[in-house]
Design goal:
Immunoglobulin-like; C8orf32 fold; 8 helices; alpha+beta; five-stranded antiparallel beta sheet; 24% helix
Length: 324
């Protein structure tokens, strides 16, 4: 087992050549709430904001239109977001733009960028969420996958390999994108939310703290991004938070890239929020499954149809080949 682990680490080191060293960019996050009816009175809106954390630095965050936004930071998870109470909004669509400058470095297995966690963070990263379950079958599967593995990294790698091999990236079957572990177990298909919910459930069932991370890919050649991307992190005592991107790995036939995406991340992404079942303030009518879309409510009821997009322009290119 020790020899297998040593070979795995050597492969991860060699495949770091697949990623760029850094990426700097100007970006605009566009949050839209469509179908707002006339005469709603006060519309309450929450939007996520990009955050400086780990591999990422964010500056110059501005929100337009200026509806009297109040910015908040979640003390438990470090998420940043803004809230506004908009009186008598016009019927139709409400569009909000968040402009910012970002810089992201490659994350490397050998040197995690977030090396500590509080007891509260670890406790939160071990318990079930509404859709990220710890059901009996998840616990049975986790035991089967990790039998014979004696280290946290070895157990996490077994879980990652299972998810990559057994899940199919597929957005044609209704129900994808909710990040529902039980659905993932039933049909073995979904998008990045579904892949990483399964990974997180199996990790937590194995006693490994794990958390959900969501943002956007920065790979579109025209700089127009139409949907989010998510990944996961697991915690190793003495090392810190280790990233994985199982859904990206599953779409590649390159074994070196699949190995790379366990423990390493290219910089072709921007992070917004962490976690599931998020409780914001002012309070939303229910905890948020995850937070990348705008949330709009009137008198405690969700209203409108949310959509998102991201526009970006790279402002400083670094050497090296891309990992995507």
């Amino acid at each position: 087992m020790k020899r297998i682990f040593e070979v795995t680490v050597l492969l991860l080191v060699s495949t770091s050549l697949f990623a760029q060293k850094a990426k700097t960019f100007d970006a605009t996050y566009i949050a839209t709430v469509s179908g707002i009816p006339a005469g709603v009175g006060e519309l309450r809106v929450w939007i996520p904001l990009p955050v400086t954390r780990g591999a990422q630095t964010v500056s110059g965050v501005t929100i337009d239109p200026p509806y009297g936004w109040t910015r908040y930071k979640d003390a438990d998870l470090g998420n940043e977001y803004a809230f506004a109470a908009i009186p008598n909004p016009l019927p139709g669509d409400l569009a909000i733009s968040v402009r910012f400058t970002g810089s992201r470095r490659e994350e490397r297995f050998q040197s995690p960028l977030e090396t500590t966690a509080t007891p509260a963070e670890l406790k939160r990263a071990l318990r079930a969420d509404k859709l990220v379950t710890l059901s009996p079958r998840i616990r049975r599967l986790a035991r089967r996958l990790t039998t014979g593995r004696t280290t946290t990294i070895g157990k996490a790698r077994a879980i990652y390999d299972y998810v990559v091999a057994n899940m199919k990236y597929d957005k044609t079957i209704p129900g994808w994108g909710e990040g529902d572990t039980e659905r993932a177990c039933d049909i073995h298909a979904g998008n990045c939310s579904d892949f990483h919910s399964l990974f997180i459930s199996l990790a937590r069932a194995s006693g490994i703290p794990a958390r959900f991370v969501i943002g956007f890919p920065l790979t579109a050649k025209d700089g127009q991004v139409k949907g989010y991307h998510c990944w996961a992190e697991f915690f190793v005592k003495g090392r810190g938070w280790i990233p994985v991107d199982a859904s990206e790995a599953s779409q590649s036939s390159d074994p070196a890239l699949r190995a790379y995406l366990f423990g390493n991340l290219d910089p072709d992404r921007v992070q917004f929020t962490i976690g599931r079942d998020l409780k914001l303030r002012p309070r939303t009518s229910a905890p948020l499954n995850y937070f990348i879309y705008p949330r709009a409510e009137v008198r405690g009821s969700v209203i409108g149809t949310p959509s998102i997009a991201l526009k970006f322009r790279e402002t400083a290119a670094a050497g090296g080949a891309t990992g995507r």
